[in-house]
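hey m, so remember when u said the tokens were messed up on ur end? i reran from scratch. heres the input so u can diff it against urs
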Amino acid sequence: MPYGYWLDGHAAQLKLPGKAMLLVAMTLLDWFSLPFAKGPVWYGIGTSTVERGIRELRRSDLLDANLTWKKAPLTTTGWTQDMRYRLRPPFGPVGKVTKGAPTELLPTPESANPSRQADSKPTGTPKRRKPVAKKRTGRGTRGAGRKPSPTTHRTP
């Protein structure tokens, strides 16, 4: 748990649902999906507790949420909601996006590695390493000191 949990007062501010969902969210990647109905099956936390915890984290400004619509041909409307979440500092973001996240939530190459400048690309070709000479393992006779292969049968 980051020091900000105690120093920023989150330990005193968050109630049990918020603390439980914070611990769950810290184990997940950015833009994770957490349907409320899956809380009991996936984490052993009741549906209403998951809902209250997510709501509490959002009110405390610790969780970003993004709602998108995706095609679902078997539903009556043909569409379904896809709610995705990401922790905010000091608890996140992690820097890796959950598989299946919408493309608009994927990081751009510039934001994926902020320490690298967009215009500072390496120039020239990389140097090739010289091959290393192989050491001889045998001692005098060919094959001495080697294990016999499984196909070779020796008779005493």
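this time it looks ok to me. The longest strand covers residues 63-71. if urs says something different then somethings off w ur setup not the seq
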